[in-house]
Amino acid sequence: VLTEEIRDQLSRASVAAITLQLQRRGIRSTFFEGLRPLAEGQRMIGVAHTLRYVPIREDLLPALGRANAQRTAIESLAPGEVLVIEARNELGGGTLGDVYARRAMMLGAVGIVTDGCLRDTPAVKDVGLPVYNRGSHSGTFSRVHMPLDHQVPIACAGVTVMPGDIIVGDGEGAVVIPAALVAELAHDALQQELEDEWSVQRVAAGESTEGVFPISKERRPEFETWLAERTKATAGDQ
Amino acid sequence: VLTEEIRDQLSRASVAAITLQLQRRGIRSTFFEGLRPLAEGQRMIGVAHTLRYVPIREDLLPALGRANAQRTAIESLAPGEVLVIEARNELGGGTLGDVYARRAMMLGAVGIVTDGCLRDTPAVKDVGLPVYNRGSHSGTFSRVHMPLDHQVPIACAGVTVMPGDIIVGDGEGAVVIPAALVAELAHDALQQELEDEWSVQRVAAGESTEGVFPISKERRPEFETWLAERTKATAGDQ
Amino acid sequence: VLTEEIRDQLSRASVAAITLQLQRRGIRSTFFEGLRPLAEGQRMIGVAHTLRYVPIREDLLPALGRANAQRTAIESLAPGEVLVIEARNELGGGTLGDVYARRAMMLGAVGIVTDGCLRDTPAVKDVGLPVYNRGSHSGTFSRVHMPLDHQVPIACAGVTVMPGDIIVGDGEGAVVIPAALVAELAHDALQQELEDEWSVQRVAAGESTEGVFPISKERRPEFETWLAERTKATAGDQ
Amino acid sequence: VLTEEIRDQLSRASVAAITLQLQRRGIRSTFFEGLRPLAEGQRMIGVAHTLRYVPIREDLLPALGRANAQRTAIESLAPGEVLVIEARNELGGGTLGDVYARRAMMLGAVGIVTDGCLRDTPAVKDVGLPVYNRGSHSGTFSRVHMPLDHQVPIACAGVTVMPGDIIVGDGEGAVVIPAALVAELAHDALQQELEDEWSVQRVAAGESTEGVFPISKERRPEFETWLAERTKATAGDQ
Amino acid sequence: VLTEEIRDQLSRASVAAITLQLQRRGIRSTFFEGLRPLAEGQRMIGVAHTLRYVPIREDLLPALGRANAQRTAIESLAPGEVLVIEARNELGGGTLGDVYARRAMMLGAVGIVTDGCLRDTPAVKDVGLPVYNRGSHSGTFSRVHMPLDHQVPIACAGVTVMPGDIIVGDGEGAVVIPAALVAELAHDALQQELEDEWSVQRVAAGESTEGVFPISKERRPEFETWLAERTKATAGDQ
Amino acid sequence: VLTEEIRDQLSRASVAAITLQLQRRGIRSTFFEGLRPLAEGQRMIGVAHTLRYVPIREDLLPALGRANAQRTAIESLAPGEVLVIEARNELGGGTLGDVYARRAMMLGAVGIVTDGCLRDTPAVKDVGLPVYNRGSHSGTFSRVHMPLDHQVPIACAGVTVMPGDIIVGDGEGAVVIPAALVAELAHDALQQELEDEWSVQRVAAGESTEGVFPISKERRPEFETWLAERTKATAGDQ
Questions:
Q1: What is the per-residue pLDDT across B31-72, written as a single tens digit (0 to 9) for each?
Q2: Which residues are paired to E169 by β-bridges?
Q3: Could you tell me the pTM of the whole model?
Q4: Which of A22, A97, A229, D196 has the fewest CB within 10 Å, making it most exposed?
Q5: How far is A30 from E140, CA to CA, in rounded Å?
Q6: Within its chain, how far is the Cα of C177 from the centroid?
Q7: Which run of H or of E encompasses B73?
Q8: Any idea what DSSP says for residue D141?
């Protein structure tokens, strides 16, 4: 679903513009609350590959250990995927360390989102994959977690994520886009971004926000002219 | 798996004694943290029937609404089951109201555990089914939740619950027992309860806890004698 | 705005039914989250009289102390009013004690809602006024609070309350109803309550919830008949 | 330090009146925040015997286990003492169960305060000793705690407690009184209670709180007369 | 009230020195708890212009939307002002984005303090205005908030702020200074800063902190001499 | 106990590798939860010197002020020590400022761990000592704390610390190592680190994690060969 055009549009829109467009469609809980980008300025666009952790139940470990949902999730990552981990916002143990992060990158994964903790954070940072996480804990997941299953619906940082959803991240955080909506969403988010760009320019030129943000009916022709010229100019650049 | 003998043993053991026996086997997270009995003195023994809620995603409602995991879970309850709901410890919306609670009881369910909120709590209380919950909220689940699936593994109040696990509750709270362990667990928990009963009697008679709690090797014969007599006496009662 | 008919309807509807009707109108945040009834089974219907506390700023005490918003709020309570206090969900100090609670009752106030703590809770309980609060703290408000103003818009337990809003409480908690909507809301909430009553009766008679809760188009005539008979019977009672 | 007169005064003053007198002396943190009485209407006056728990460190268990601060604390309780436990407001494990609670009572202890959880709460309730606690957890302390030492200064529910401090509890919660201040504090708190009683009577008679609460200079003679008569009447009762 | 001299003094004192001087005057709650500087090393001095958000009440939107307190607050900002937003420490939605941040800067505002979330944080960072905030959320304020009023007293991050109060920020966080106290406060905070500078120099020279921090009566003449020389030297620099 | 060899091993192992080795020995709570390094990339190895804060009790200040546990702790720091402060995870006041931080460094201390707040954070950062803290607050400790004692067992960020324990920190956080275990722990943690290094190299070369992480019996000889060569090469470097 992530065509070149959609990727281009998403890469030029902020997570804020995307979230606003989702809110406009009545989809309210899409921003991963409380997660932070590991590296400043990082950006990420990919397809969700989910992994679910539940509280450890030592009697279930033999059966679940054989299955090993964590390894299975990592090893089955496809190029362009983002690993999204449900860890119940738990701060008492890690959910992923540097070896698996590096393996994810080798397999073409483009990012990691976890509502729990990273483990061995400095080494994960060195891997260079964009990561959004709640915190860090140097204990292994078995301190509190047990990987249960992958590619199932999950709840991560207050957001429901389905396998195949689109995940976009920037310097603010990350957001989920339902796969079925990504084409129109990418288009409208970019349009939103451009409107904001015009609003900022008007404000920077000394204008009040009245009529300028949001753009009023009266000012819209002015914006359209600006947008047409801008598009032409950008096209000329290429 | 809940034979008459096991039920009898579990009904005479406290949740505290059961939890201790699980800890002794290295199973640490079995008590539903922060949930309270709805009615004072209530007791509950049953088989887990799980229901999973995730954060609402309005775009998924049409598909999930048709499936309606909440109704399916309730209507498929079998006699002797306890409905256990994963609701992410969320306090911002209800997870179950009085109509479904009554239907659950009509179908022979013996209790409800939810790590979220009850809705219409006074009416649910009138139903009379034992309930363990985190709080109350008069909003419907759609304020924050979306029922996703039932009879799948869940995380409830810090505890992983598998369909078919045994759930026991008393005036303190509720605990999960792995189905495979319930026979030995019930036996050992009752034994633990009886040891505590003896310890309490000794302490009430003015003894120090030294050697009495836990029971030392030296005092164990004394306990065994007491236990034998007590068992005989109880048998005579029947 | 609280006519006899509206009062009657509200007194027969649960807070859950009222909240559901508000949700149906797209008004999502009306239930005071995390507040509990002080006495079991209490009920309350009244008009909001608001009081706002802010964090103590010792330099402002001389000016604000002369004004004394707490006393002014209490002494200006009119019959039928509910005192609603914004205290930032703070657990570190009381917001109201027994003398003011008694004065409120003497002036005809019908209840108190505070998202902070009661002080001298046993004595307040003796006053007999319905109270919804977050907790108890025996310190006076000056430990953390400063009364700022009364009869201004406030935020209480996650709900915005305007002076003159209608506040209804039952054994579950309390809810705010916008004054402009109270007539239609009371009617529809009571209708909701009656539908639920029918659903419960059908379920108690052994029916599935399918078609019965919520009431399907097919079953609605049946409900209407039941309702007509019930209304006649009730009228006969009077 | 707890003479008969001081006990009498403390038993007639509320925890709220005591806390107010401590605040007046600039001692701000004396009320155990967030702890609740186990039984409705319970009251407690005693001398603090402290017990400190720290997070479990399995390597330290052999040494600390031999010392066993929990048992030592319980077995060394003297008549009139209140066991006060520091447990870091932790909700993940019990701090005391019914056997030790009963032993405490047998030794003449008059109450228990813990900022952690009770274990086997129903059985502890049967013991009948006044308890103030944060919650309940059926796991043993070893799930998260390790008893370290007793009769040392502790921090409990936001309050520093020294061995020998006076602890008073009522239906609202519990408060610590520095031993050195207990005589004057008991006197002034009772005086405060009597002033409040007069204020309540005036308000119940229909007066405004102005001048009545707190008692103004103008109304004080009236209060003094009432107090003198009340004291005489009470004396006559005896 | 912010004369050139006061600005100079405040710019040379740390927020820590200012807060200490406020504590010394018995004003305890002045530091915005839990808010962080958006950019490392930022500093800010200005006059508070307040804005109050309350929980969204959809029925009130038409009336409040027309008033639009957010736009009114921004558009009425005067040079030298700091916009201070009350958002109930809420992490579930933004309170301000980049267009309004830029408009604020264009109008001469010198900073923003919000106890809620920024929206489109990277773009706000580009604006370059000093910001102190609790977190980031890419959703718009309407997800949870409703702007109610501006230039009214507010509670922000545990601190009461009056319009016209002085707000100072550095790399640690931000603090409020009552306008009436700013002259003496600025003087004393700078003096405090200089004392600390001397203490640090003494410690860096190998001395114990005894007598040096805080400065004892015996060492004060030494400090005074150092201060006189330092002042002379600094004057020579200019 | 910190020989040159042990220091060398610890300096080459990550906090994650150390924590894992502690978990393997059944010691679960050793990582200071929720504390962050003040400066990016900082590292720290030292011996714990503990300091305990309790909630302020104004009546105890005269006695405790004379003792002044804070100054005593700082002034008695020995070269190679890490000051570890118990501050109950409290965010409402500082626990240490720049003058004491500098004095600590002058005395040869190698780091600071506090589960409370730094005060005057920018100035402390300038001192250059590695610090792990929960947050920042510009108020002095007397806003909420009272230094009680030093070189006693403490609970810090969920971890029990004994005077003399070994504290190691890196860019992720800090961990405690029981002094008695430090020799074997340092050896095994470095071994763990080297195994991870090999795993990362294999993964970076395109291998699956299967057999490579953790290292299987089949692959172990390969790792041993690599390790021998690596050790030789490193030795050649020196």
A1: 999 999 999 999 999 999 999 999 999 999 998 887 899 999
A2: E44, E174
A3: 0.97
A4: A229
A5: 12
A6: 9
A7: helix B69-75
A8: G
Name the residue with higher pLDDT: B142 or C66.
B142
Q: Retrieve residue C190's tokens.
A: 């009571």
Task: Report the amino acid identity of residue B57.
Answer: R
Decide: C35 and C161 in contact? Cβ < 8 Å: no
pLDDT over threshold 80, residue A12: yes
CA gap C198, A81 in Å, rounded: 51
Beta partners for residue A174, in sequence order = A169
Where does the pLDDT of residue B233 fall: very low under 50, low under 70, confident under 90, or very high at 90 and above? Answer: confident
Yes or no, beta carbons of D138 and B33 under 8 Å apart: no
- D34-53 pLDDT, tens digit per residue, is 999 999 999 999 999 999 99
Q: CB-side exposure of E192: number of CA atoms within 13 Å?
A: 20
The whole-number pLDDT of residue B1 equals 85
**Binary contact (A136, F172; C-beta < 8 A):** yes
Closest by CA position to B63, among listed A153, A188, A151: A153
CA distance E117 to D100: 49
Closest chain C CA to residue E26: C58
**Sign of the CA dihedral B112, B113, B118, B121?**
positive
What kind and span of H or E run contains F161?
strand F159-161
| ipTM of the modeled complex | 0.95
- Rounded Cα–Cα distance for residues F231 and F185 (Å): 20
Alpha helices in chain D (DSSP H): 4-12, 15-24, 61-67, 69-75, 98-106, 121-127, 182-204, 220-237
Mutation target to probe the D interface, by most D beta carbons within 10 A, among B19, B27, B167 is B19
For the stretch C224-237, pLDDT in tens is: 999 999 989 877 65
Chain A residues contacting E, CB < 8 Å?
14-20, 23, 28, 31, 33-34, 41, 170-173, 175, 196, 199-200, 203-204, 206, 208-210, 213
Pairing type for strands F36-37 and F131-133 reads antiparallel
Q: What per-residue confidence (pLDDT) applies to E66?
A: 79
Shortest Cα distance from A156 to chain F (angstroms)? 20
Q: Are strands E81-86 and E154-156 parallel, antiparallel or unpaired?
A: unpaired
User: Can you give the pLDDT at residue D78?
Assistant: 98
* pLDDT in the model for residue F166: 98
State the pLDDT at residue D67: 80
CA-to-CA dists, residue E167 to D201, D214, E79, angstroms? 47, 36, 14
The verdict on a CB contact (< 8 Å) between E122 and A210 is no
Tokens of C106: 């003497």
- Which amino acid belongs to residue E65? G
Question: How many CA atoms are closer than 13 Å to the CA of E122, on its beta-carbon side?
Answer: 18
Question: How far does F16 lie from chain A, in Å, by closest CA?
Answer: 4
Report how far Cα A233 is from the mean position of its chain's Cα atoms: 30
Which pLDDT band, with edges at 50, 70 and 90, does F67 fall under?
Answer: confident
Among C155, C124, C130, C127, residue whose Cα is nearest residue C54: C155
Task: Judge whether residue B105 has pLDDT over 90.
Answer: yes
CB spacing of A91 vs F33 below 8 angstroms: yes
- Residue D233's pLDDT is what? 85
Q: F39 in helix, strand or coil?
A: coil
Kindly report the number of other CB atoms within 10 A of residue C5's CB atom.
11
**φ, ψ dihedrals at F179, nearest 5°:** -55, -40
| Distances in whole angstroms, Cα of residue D156 to Cα of each of B143, C205, D114, D178, E35 | 37, 53, 7, 15, 28
Instruction: Identify whether the C-beta of residue A134 lies closer than 8 Å to the C-beta of residue A91.
Output: yes
Summary mean pLDDT of chain A: 96
Residue C111 confidence (pLDDT): 98
Structure token digits, residue E21: 């001087």
